[in-house]
Each structure stands twice: as structure tokens, then as C-alpha cells.
Amino acid sequence: MIINKIVKLKRILNDAVSKNKTIGLVPTMGFLHEGHLSLIRKAKKENELIVVSIFVNPTQFGPEEDFGTYPRNIKSDTKLAIEAGADIIFNPSVNEMYPEDSSTWVNVEGDITTILCGVSRPTHFKGVTTVVNMLFNIVEPNKAYFGQKDAQQVAVLTKMTKDLHLNVELVICPIIREVDGVALSSRNTYLNKDERKQASILYKSLQMALDAFRNGQNSVDELETLIKNQISTMHLAEIDYVNIRSFPSLNKIKDVKGRALAAVAVKFGKTRLIDNVILEKKK
Ligand code: AMP
Q: How far is the CA of 36 from the centre of ligand 1 (A)?
């Protein structure tokens, strides 16, 4: 069932809650792929009613970014989401979420939103935290599902949930990849053939860093250099950042002790891709 209006969604959800049903929420911007579907399938296993939101959120795009051209296909998304276990597709209009007089923001302040993607996308996380907060308030889910693909988003939302004492459990799901290692992303459709081929260097370089770490290299400088050198072997790749930080606090570290996040953002032509691995010893 597709629902566009908040009041209607709330009515249905109130009814479900009165029957003691647990609610799982999967927030997405649509153009669904296996990454999104893995979140929906996991939610289906752990909750009785699954809401998948499909909303291309304008406030998380910068003025020069791809809000207007972001791929959309609500018809095929609805089919895929329902097959994966969604009960309700919440697909509001921009005006439904942000009426003209809307002027309230949720913003996680500090380094956590200004480093990594926050450098080239200074208003991005403010848009994400505001819309996710709205979705939490509208749906009031028991659990909400997010992908490790957007590792900084996970870190920021974890902090927001803690800081605001929100009554929801965040479930973080592993990154789903193509056979050559490229992380699935709705934006991969922007890549031409050569860019798509060279994009596999992101995961390869991260894997090499993971191997080096497991073989005893724990200097952040050395590991970042290794990743940068690998990515630079691809002539179409333009590095935005390569960063190793503690996770999920995203603090600066000199050496990897225990566990850390290695994250990269790289442009291929106009398309900016992100990827990451967790550096940790084998269990
Ligand atoms: P998006 O539609 O890009 O906003 O993504 C919606 C959710 O799906 C976010 O929590 C993403 O982290 C997650 N996601 C996107 N791509 C992947 C992937 N390749 N593997 C796992 N989760 C993903």
C-alpha cells in the first residue's frame, strides 16, 4: 500500500500499535537496489509491520548537487519493496514534509558533521538529521534500519538518537556489493562504462588497507597513503578524501587500536562515490 499523507499513515500506524504490533522503518530515497532490499528483508524478520519511506529529501542536497536529476522510479520501487517485505510505502511530497512555513532544524553540531563528507557537503547532515527525525516522529518505529554504506550518516544518527534520548533502536546493516566489489548505490547509474570499471578500485584499496592492518600495519598515515596510492592508479579517479577515524565517534587517531573506520569519497567525472570498511582483526 502506498501512502502519501502523514495523517493517513498515522491513523494506520495507531491502529497497528493498538494491536501491539512492532514497527520497523526503512528510510530511503528510492531507486531501490539490493542494498535497500537487504534492509527491508532484515526489518521484516524483526518486526510485524514494515514501513519503507521513499523520499528524495531536498534539504540534504547542496545547491550544486543532483536533487533535480536524482533517479526516481516509484512504480518499480513499490513492487520491489513489497516483494522484500514492506507493508507500507510512505511516499510524501516535499510540501507534505516541509510545508511553506516549516523552519525547524535538527542539527548535530561538532566535528562529526563537519569532517569527511561534511567538508564538501556542509549542509548535508543537517538535512539528514532533520528528515530522519521527522520520520521517527511520524512513524514512531521500534527499530529503524540503516546501511553501513553511509558510515558517517550512521555515526551522526547514532549520536542524534543518543543526544535527543529518542525511543528507537538503530539497526546497522552490512554493505551490499557488486561482484567486483563496487558498493551498490542509486548514483552508480550516473557512471559511464570506463568510470564504472575503475570504480572497483575503492573497495580494492580498502581491502588492501585491511590486509595490511591485519598483517601488523596500524599507522593511520601509512594506511591512508596506501589507499590513496592505490586509488591514484586509476586516471579517472579524483580523491575527495581518504580518512581513517575511530568508529562511531569519528575521532582523529594516530594508530588503529582495536577497531576503526577507513572511509573514502572519490569522484569519477561528476559522480561522487563513497565507500568504507571497518578495520578490525579477524574474529
Ligand atoms: P539512500 O536511498 O541512498 O538514502 O539509502 C537508504 C538506505 O539504504 C541508507 O541507510 C543506506 O545506507 C542504505 N544503503 C544504500 N546502499 C547500500 C548498500 N550498498 N548496502 C547496504 N545498505 C545500503
A: 5
Could you tell me if the CB of 77 is within 6 A of ligand 1?
no
Query: What does the pLDDT look like over 101-147, one tens digit per residue?
Result: 999 999 999 999 999 999 999 999 999 999 999 999 999 999 999 99
Q: What share of the chain is helix, strand, coil (3-state, %, to 5)?
A: 45, 20, 35
Architecture of domain 2-173: 3-Layer(aba) Sandwich (3.40)
What is the 139 CA–ligand 1 centroid distance (Å)?
19
Q: Which fold has domain 186-276?
A: Pantoate--beta-alanine Ligase; Chain: A,domain 2 (3.30.1300)
